[in-house]
Amino acid sequence: MSDTFQLEIVTPEKMVVKDVAEEAQIPGSNGYLGILPGHAPLITELAVGEITYRNNAITHHLSVAWGFAEVLPDKVTILAETAERPDEIDKRRALEAKQRAEERLKSGSTEVDFTRAQDALQRAETRLQVAEQKT
């Protein structure tokens, strides 16, 4: 059995990652999944969160939001609505989005879609966290 697997992360706009990985952590809809070579096949829905993968002792970080992942023993394909590397994240914009979401959640207004505001807050916080990582 190989000690690596092929990793592809794709958004509607572009191929974000096409690399070899020794391990990966992906945000599934029911929690994070740890992936190693030879993993049992599965398909899962993605949540908002951080993808990390290791290649040659270097850990790479990406912010991801929604989509699906297909895990096979020798390949992981992630189809995401959005995926960003740390250097692609606009920190100022992410901070402003976080503040807007927090204001909506604190407002107590019946017109606020709280689920959407919580998703926006989680996405902004994840983007800020990933932006601080070094690849």
Describe it for me?
By secondary structure, the protein is α+β, with helices and mostly antiparallel strands. The protein has two domains: 5-86, Sandwich (ATP Synthase, domain 1); 89-131, Single alpha-helices involved in coiled-coils or other helix-helix interfaces. Helix content is 26%, strand content 45%. It has two helices and eight strands. The chain has helices at 91-107, 114-131; strands spanning 5-10, 15-21, 23-28, 31-35, 42-46, 49-55, 58-72, 75-84. Strands 1, 2, 3, 4, 5, 6, 7 and 8 form an eight-stranded mixed beta sheet that branches.
List the helices and strands and how they pair.
Blueprint: E1 5-10, E2 15-21, E3 23-28, E4 31-35, E5 42-46, E6 49-55, E7 58-72, E8 75-84, H1 91-107, H2 114-131
Parallel strand pairs: 1-8
Antiparallel strand pairs: 1-2, 3-4, 3-6, 5-7, 6-7, 7-8
Helix pairs in contact: 1-2
CATH homologous superfamily grouping of the largest domain: F0F1 ATP synthase delta/epsilon subunit, N-terminal
How many domain regions? 2
Average of the residue pLDDT scores? 93
Oligomer: single chain
- Total of helices: 2
Q: What is the general shape?
A: elongated
* CATH level 3 topology of the largest domain: ATP Synthase, domain 1
Instruction: Give the helices and strands as they follow along the chain.
Output: EEEEEEEEHH
Tell me the Rg in angstroms.
Answer: 16 Å
Report the top-level CATH class of the largest domain.
Answer: Mainly Beta
- The helix content is 25-40%
CATH architecture of the largest domain: Sandwich
Task: Tally the beta strands.
Answer: 8
